[in-house]
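Sequence in, structure out.
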Amino acid sequence: MTNEVKIFSGSSNTALAESIAKHFGIPLGKSSLSRFSDGEFQPSFEESVRGCDVFIIQSTFPPTDNLFELLLMVDAAKRASAKRIVAVLPYFGFARQDRKDQPRVPIGSKLVANMLTAAGVSRVMTMDLHADQIQGFFEVPVDHLYGSAVFSEAIRELNLPNLIMASPDMGGSKRAYAYAKHLETDVVVCYKQRKKANKVDKMFLIGDVEGKDVLLVDDMIDTAGTLTKAADIMAEKGASSVRAICTHPILSGEAYERIENSKLTELLVTDTIPLKRQSDKIRVVSVAELFAKVIYKVHNYESISSYFIF
């Protein structure tokens, strides 16, 4: 038996998977997806994976077909006698359902963890989980990478003279403080109130941004309501410029329109989720090389602690 590495892609983010394989130095593994007339689908590997370390790259953003396709691919690899099966989820869907925040609701991220484990994953690799405790939902090792590993250099290249980090809500303040400590800057935080999901009712700024180059930081951007409202408040309070970095560009609903009409100068995102369309205000920083390096380290049982920037 060999201990060969094979990298395969689900259908959610083939471009990222191809780039990861290229940086790793091997071609992307051959697989196919057959569909029945009623919508049922069946993935299959078109080459042997027996005795191999199999890395399956699939971001699990909606629709849930992406998640189920990953589960089927893991099951197929297990039944084809792969040595190890690593689920690489650049974006881990259902991560916002990490606790019971009201009666009679599920803990979706725990359910996803259970399904991946039941399907047969040996390990999980992901980036910027919405909640760190999700790592504890798994009974297999989890490599939790951070967007800061690719964003830190991009921030330095901006060369902002009066940089200050900002969080669009209280929940993201820990992330903003981590960036601020690393970059030796101050922090401001927005306090928001919501009456229902994806809609901000009120927002207040805690801190002074007058004459500052504000850099908002968050793990994901969905409808862009919170982020653009925070950017507009920063501008109203006298900020010289307002930019944002968000690892996962979900960008649903009116997100693109809100970004275009906001006071944001620029939005930096990664390619964990492919953009639905291009925008002059959105710049993509690739995570492909980072994932390729970590895959190499995991395959060779080497330490990956150097890739946990902050």
